[in-house]
Fold this protein.
Amino acid sequence: MHVTVVLCTYNRCDSLAKALESVARSSMPSSVEWDVLVVDNNSRDGTRAVVERFCLEFPGRFRYVFEPQQGKSYALNRGIGQSKGDVIAFMDDDVEVDSQWLHRLTSPLSDQRWSGSGGRILPEAGFVPPTWLDTEVRYALAPFAIFDLGKAAGELKESPFGTNMAFRAGMFSKYGGFRTDLGPQPGSEIRSEDTEFGARLLAGGERFWYEASAVVYHPVQPERVRKSYLLKWWFDKGRADIREHGCSATIKYRIREVPIVFYRRLCISAIRWACGITAKRRFSSRITVWGIAGMIKECRAQAEKRTPLIQTAIPTNSHPSHVSDD
């Protein structure tokens, strides 16, 4: 087996160095070849110098690719196209992994039953959720990129999160790459490029493995632990859901191309927000209001465009690029 880790980065040379230091310490069986491919998505800081230092320090282990088209999905797709691996794993430029992470995440894929795998994403030590956030609600910590289904391994029935997932390389040939209308890019923080890809595979009958011992530690920046950030995140998540699933074309009754049921749900959630007994309940309902508002906005935007959603093909190795195999 050959494993390639794809890490996309943009203007985060300081945290990138820490991420690369952590993955450089990976302990892998001698029978497994592995490398780390860093895709520089048009950074203007010291990113290239950081990566080239690792290329020199660990010859053959690290590679650098420059992707000028701004947008995470473009960078991800470039990384996939330049990958050497039978298995492609993904991590972000602001996380840290332990020495066993890569082995534990990818080893289940030696079993032909599994097309992909995902692990736990935990906050760095010391993180305490705000008192006004109801952490008992499913995916309440998703805006912090936290993914934790417990300590028991087993079949994964949902999409893993992007900074701790791996797939057989053949899945990208079979299902295509990450959608470029999703994922952060200039002027948009709409995400879900990772979970949409996983959902696409699950819908195609593929099966995933959840490896609880494959742990990634993700920092939670102070600016994210704010109501304004979470509300914006869920608003964009509502928009992403419409891009992914469409605007309920089978629903007959609409107002300005938006299903009436969306407005009904919006009103109910707004009432719950106003009448909630506790701060947690009120904010949970407020999140729902923002999410539905995002769905309504995207329904209108899609109606104005009247264009099909775009799924980008994976660039091949013949595509011009700046690659260093130092």
